[in-house]
Design brief:
The chain is built from 4 helices and 6 strands; from the N terminus they run αβββαββααβ. With 143 residues, it is an alpha+beta fold.
Length: 143
């Protein structure tokens, strides 16, 4: 993927990104997601639950968009990527880390520390393909 000046730095500052999936002949659903990634030029990962719309959408169409703001007001970076699901063993390891990030008070619970399973957990990996800069008004979201 071609590099865009300033994109890496702005991505590192983006704690929340917009994640778009596609369904029904190009219709798009965009939602905010926490960003645990450090490099928009490498594979990005996003933990979620298996029964979400985004998982169903990715199963039917692997094209996704990752959007995050530029320092220049009113502009965003848009990365088009190909999504796939992480291996279940890797998912179990990363999911535990992610879960404890949000629920650190549970770090001493036996089911967490002694190999507890996390059923219906999924990690969506996104391989970036191309990136561009867009204006905020060009982001169409569907409630």
């Amino acid at each position: 993927m071609e590099r865009i000046e300033g994109m890496l730095e702005d991505f590192e500052q983006s704690k929340v990104i917009l994640f778009s999936t596609f369904y029904e002949k190009g219709k798009k659903l965009t939602r905010p997601m926490t960003n645990y990634n450090y490099d928009p030029y490498q594979t990005m990962w996003f933990p979620t639950f298996g029964d979400t719309f985004k998982v169903g959408h990715v199963m039917k169409n692997t094209k996704v968009l990752v959007l995050f703001p530029r320092k220049k007001e009113g502009e965003f970076y848009e990365i088009e990527g190909k999504a796939e699901f992480e291996d279940p063993k890797v998912t179990e390891h990363k999911w535990k880390w992610w879960y404890l990030f949000w629920h650190p008070e549970l770090k001493n619970y036996t089911w967490i520390t002694q190999g507890g399973k996390f059923p219906d957990r999924v990690i969506i990996n996104v391989q970036p393909i191309k990136a561009r800069i867009i204006k905020a008004e060009d982001i169409d979201t569907i409630p």
